[in-house]
Every structure is written in C-alpha cells, then in structure tokens.
Amino acid sequence: MDKDRLDPWGTSTVKDYSRLRSEFGIEPVAPLLPRFKRPSPHLSRGIDFGQRDLGRVLDAVDNNKPYAVMSGIKPTGDFHLGTKMTADDMVYFQSLSKKGTVFYAVADVEAYADNGLSFEETSKIATRNVADILALGLDPDRAVVYLQSEELKVMRLGIVFSKGVTNNMLRAIYGERQIGLYMAALFQAGDILMPQLPELGGPKPVLVPVGADQDPHIRLARDLAARYREEYGFIPPSSVYHRLMLSLSGSDKMSKRTEGSLLKLDDLPREATRKISTAFTGGRDTVEEQRRLGGRPDICPVFDLYRFHFAKDDEHVHRVHEECAHGIRLCGECKQEANGLVKAFLEDHRKKRDSLMKDATELLARSREYLTSTGK
Amino acid sequence: MDKDRLDPWGTSTVKDYSRLRSEFGIEPVAPLLPRFKRPSPHLSRGIDFGQRDLGRVLDAVDNNKPYAVMSGIKPTGDFHLGTKMTADDMVYFQSLSKKGTVFYAVADVEAYADNGLSFEETSKIATRNVADILALGLDPDRAVVYLQSEELKVMRLGIVFSKGVTNNMLRAIYGERQIGLYMAALFQAGDILMPQLPELGGPKPVLVPVGADQDPHIRLARDLAARYREEYGFIPPSSVYHRLMLSLSGSDKMSKRTEGSLLKLDDLPREATRKISTAFTGGRDTVEEQRRLGGRPDICPVFDLYRFHFAKDDEHVHRVHEECAHGIRLCGECKQEANGLVKAFLEDHRKKRDSLMKDATELLARSREYLTSTGK
Q1: pTM of the full structure
Q2: Which of B245, B277, B311 is the last residue of a domain?
Q3: Residue A196's CB: how many other CB atoms inside 10 A?
Q4: Is A198 on the interface with B (CB under 8 A)?
Q5: Closest CB to A179 among B109, B112, B165
Q6: Which residue from A81, A106, A359, B125 has the fewest beta carbons nearer than 10 Å?
C-alpha cells in the first residue's frame, strides 16, 4: 500500500491527523462544538476530531427533521475497545434527537472478504455484538440492525454501483486490490446509502461515524451519491471520524488483528488485568528519569484507556495527563487505577449484555421483518 | 477485446468452431451421439457441436441419478430466436430423465450490468420469458426459476468466490473489464454452482447449455468448482455449446443488440414477414449466376431459420441445403417457404404462451418459496 493512502483494511494507526485535513479534505469538528448541548466524551476530548458535512445532520437535529446514523461493524468476534468507539458514537448521535434512526450493518460480507470468516460463524457472533451495543445504550426502538449478506437492498445497490464506478476510480481510492475487497467496498456504499431509499423514507441526512482509516469508504459513498443523485435523490452522506486507539502493545491500532494486545468487552477481569499489567506505556526507563522528565501520555495506550473509555469525566482525563506528564504519576499506580476502572466496567457490561441477549435476538428479527416488509 | 478471446458480452459470432477445440479444450459432441436415444434437432443437425464433460450427465441419465440442467437468460426483452436455442436445449436435456431438474436463472444482474436495465423493468419481462419457455415445453414440476437479484444463495456464492479469484485470473478469462462485469461473472458462477449446495440436494452433475461465446463463464465456474471442492464437494459443471445463429443481416450473432435483424417470439406474423423479406441471404447477384453456381446456405441467415428452428425434420434441412447449393432453389421462393413456417410457429407459440402466463407466475412464486424454505 501507498503510505500516503488511508488503508481501511490495514493495521496501522494514523500518525498525523492534521494531514487528513489538508490531503483528504476532512474538516475539523472543533468549530461545530458549540452546537452540541451535551457533547459526548468523544467530542469534548477531541477523540472525534474530523467530519464531513456534520453540520447537515445538526441542522436536522435542530429542525426536528429525520436523519439516520449508519455504521457497520465487522462481526469478527466480541466487541473490543476499538469497535466500542464506533458503537459509542452511534449511540450518542442517535440520542441527539428523537428523529434519529440508527442503521447498524453487521458487516459479514467484509468479515468474509477481509478475514475469511464464514457466514455461519459470523451470524452467531452478530447476536452478541447487538447485545453489546444495546448494553452501551442503543435505543432499540429507533434502530435497524441487519446482516449485510442477508439484505438484498444492499446487494442490489452494490450491483447498481458496480456499474457507476470505473476500475481506475477504485484503484485511486483503495489502491490495487483483489476484486473481493472492491466488491465489499461497493456493498458498503450500499449500506451507507440504503437509508435514503424511497421505501425507507427517502433522502435524508445520514451520519456515518467511523475510525479515521475508514474515510476511503466515505469518499466512495459520497462520490456514488453524486453519481446517482438524479436517479435516487441521494444527499451526500456526512461523516464523523474518531481517532484510532492504540493497541496495548503501543504500536498499530487496536483491532482484531492485534489479538494479544486487544481488550475485549467479554474479557474476564483477570484477563484484562494481565493484559494491562503487560501493556506498553509512555513511561521512562527508570523511576528517577520519569520523575525528572515526566511520562509521555500521548504515546501511551494506558492513558488511552482513560481518555477513550474509562475516565470518570474530562477533568479526570486532564488530571491523569498532567500528573503523568509532570512525573507525579508513575506507570505502576496508573495501571492499577486503570485496572480498577476497566474491571468495574467489564463486570457491569457483562451483566447488562447477558440480560440483553433476548432483546438482541428480537431486534434482529424485528429489523429483518421491517426491511423485508418494505420490499426488495 | 483480444480477437482470440471469446467475448460473452459481445455481438460477434464465432468464425471457426474447430478452433474452440484446439484452443479452449472444448470437446466435440459427435462421439457421444450414439448415447442419445432420441437426439434433439440441435444434436442431429450439429448445432450443439461442443461439450465439456457431457458424458458425466449422460451417466446420471443412464443410472437414473439426479442431475441438473442450469442456464441463465437475460431478461432484456421477449425471447428471440437466439435465446430460444438455449431454452430449447434446457427443455430437451430436462426431458432425458425424470431425475433432471432445470434451474433457470433470470439473469437480471447481468442485464443490469451489461444492458443497464433496471430491476423493475426486468421483473416484468421475466414472467413473459418464463411463459415462453413453458410454451417451448419446459416441465414446470421439475424446474426452479429465479431472479438472480433476489437469490441470496447466488449473491453469497458470488461473494465467496470473489475471495477465491485473483484479478489476473479474471483478466485472463475475460480481458480487462470494468468491475461490474467481473461481479456479474462471479454471480453467474454462483448460479452455475448453486444447484450443488447441500440444501439443494448436494453435489450432482450439472449441465449448462449455452452459446459458444459463453464458454468463459463455464471455465470460471469449473475453475471455482475445483478451488472450492474441499469446502462444498462441487463436481465440475458440464456444458454443451450450440452454434450461434446469424442475425438476419447476416453479420453478428442474433441478439438483443441487433434489434432490427432479430426475430422475436412475440413478433406479429406481418413483422416477421417484413424482416424475412429484407433479410440478407447467401444468394448470388443474378438468377443466372445462382442457377449456375448455386447459393451459399452456410452464410445464409434464411437457411439458419430452417436449420436452427423451423424445418419439419432433418431431411427437410438437408433438402433445402442441397436445393440451394445446387441452384435449384432461389431466394424468393425459399424466403416464402420460410415465412410460412415462421408464421405458423409464431401463431401457435403466441397462443400457447398467452395461456401459460398464469402458470409462469405460479412457477416463479413456487420457486421462490422453495429456495427460501431451504434457508439462506
């Protein structure tokens, strides 16, 4: 892969978020912050750093107009702290107005194309994933959850779009890839644009919260929205980008591909403790050095645990950052505190999730019925 | 397109059928003819000239084992004399044994990718096409007819296969094409291999009757059958190839793309008469010359009407050929006779077809129910 191209199927994290603006035209979120009454931790902590046309969705919220929040999560296993970020954003942006509907694509086509998981395996994982997002706060009454591979509307849009792209266009966006990944990309554009089909209420603002590395999919979907505007009336989809969390080894983004340094939402507390205790940190070689120079929270996956997920509030994040940077807080005590927070979250989440398995099954069934009843 | 490559999406006919054997490994049908109790006109007249593994299907017939006959026809309009040939073959090979089941894919994905027809348009055309093939003799009790774009089994196989092919492999078979056609090709491999899925009775011989120009699809499906044999137990699909009929202008194959020189099964007799009267022939410039040198039936689309469809029997074909080649028969009288035969067929066919529209609708509904009931 070209190093200057974002790789939605890779493991690398984004080194320089400011470049995304200059090179790809992603706009900063900051100027829009005053429009949020209760910004989410992702917003207030600069985790959701970039956007395209987010204002259009906020207009819908302000004017009490319908909008959709759409994202896909690959059912490659239980949710982990990386997928939780996308899920948190879906939940938050759904909560902005009663007119917001979440479309959650269980991306089993991509899981097959990219990770080789069979549809049988992924359909089992899917129900647990849905219970996870319900436990994180998704309102099931305004959510449509479906498996990509079961949704003919998505397939058909993918086929329609395959005629509207050239191979050169796909190469420019994704680099030279095997056809399976190009096809998965076209089906994802189908996911993103499906909420605007006439049988699902027609054109509307759609916000896609994703990790920064997924921007190629957004560009493709926006390009296709323009190409098929005449036929479908598509409004270009909006997007909001979150920073990528570091894996516990400190290199690469946290994803299923870095299994050993991944915190999963169904890890037992003792597994989590073990992973955190062996995690890379931004600490120095000796205590003396750390007291003198301070730690480096900005390259530290343990600090990321606070910032991205487990700090009590923004002040807490700030305090941990300052104490670390000024050599007041050492890695051992910091890991211990993080461990306590993670453990409390995991225990609480497990209980909630287990109690929501039936609701997850029902949501999947109700969504299937809804999508089928709206025709093919 | 490379001239040495068969083009399943083109208009050209095949100039030299013997080359298909040497270059692509298509075997002649002739050595297998003694195995047919009642050879079809296509077989006895050398119209079905080539095959791959046809013997495997004949073994199933002889041993009273299940087999399938599978082909796809694009719903780009009413059946014409070109599509009738594929339909005739499907009907004939179904009739060889009570254990033969036809799978007829209404190739609306390909019609979209290749011809830009919307799924709404093609679904209307589909029912008329199904009535056409019923009028041609298809036994509806052993037939499954489905729209490609509605069949998740086909979509999923296409997605599975997209991971098993390389771009180079697709380029080698089809030349450099846009992704839409590659995708359509993968879904067609899904059509061809679907009858062997466990929920549809598992591995079995499958015969695909197609025009000679469609061999690239067969090669792709056979290649994929081998690649996925371990997982699915696929038996390589068999094929039988018919010669391509000339359009009435004498150049190109008869297809929807040569509209003006196309005889359609719903043409009114007077339209057919007009088209035949202006058709190109293998006749000479003057009557004197034709009497002296004879006509050229082998380049004559009017002779093709006799040979491919409307002669009373093989002897009739032979007689027309000889009378023409020896200058006994002139084009005017030959066209007149052809016209009478075509007219009688069209009138009879129209009546049958109109009376079978309800059966067609039922067959489509029954097939949909069957495929859905066998799971996704």
Answers
A1: 0.86
A2: B245
A3: 22
A4: no
A5: B165
A6: A359
